[in-house]
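Troubleshooting log. The previous structure file for this entry was overwritten by mistake, so regenerating from the original sequence record. Sequence copied from the archived sheet and checked twice against the printout by T.R.
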Amino acid sequence: MIGNRSYVTSYCCGSPKTFDLTQYCNMCGIGARQVAPFRLKQAPKLQNSVLQLNWVFDELFVARSVWREVFEPLGIGFRPVVLHRTGEELGDLVQLDINRAVDVDVDCLKRFKDCRRCGRRKYWPKYLIGPYPPPLKRDAGIFRSHQYFGDGLQAFNSIYISQRLFRDIRRIGLRGSISTQSTRTHNLFPTCVEKHATSIDEAGCLVLPA
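Regenerated output below.
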């Protein structure tokens, strides 16, 4: 889990102010689409860490200075975040704009549920403990899976980062929880990969797990 804190306001798979629920299924939790900034009750002091909100496992928040130093050079944008009480944009906090989604290899994932109401598929969330389903494309610094994971009304995408972004995160000491496919750890800075892998990327993209 990445710095999980209860800052989000009245979140139940998305408030009308934050999410378009047109395609949302209230049986499986899939389909909410963000159309407005998250509204927080208070401004968190992140410093050099990553924030993940309760019940929102596939959106990440960082200090604006961290975004500028680490994520902006890789072409990764941001979404503003606002203070719920006033609607004012928070100057020191941004949401990472993870707008690239790819298919992952799910051939070996045998445990899933197809929603009886909408027909969409969701895979067992414990598959993300490791080893992680590898992405079929790796052409962005950070991206999410098209496929959903979760149970009950929990529905989220897995998030992957490139080797280059991992090195930059490690360089500045950004705190949070990142796992590698090879080590199956939840340490931010894994110290080894499998012997047959010559680089972290060859062992599999790094995953920011829920």
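DSSP finds three helices and 15 strands in the chain. Archived copy saved in two places this time.
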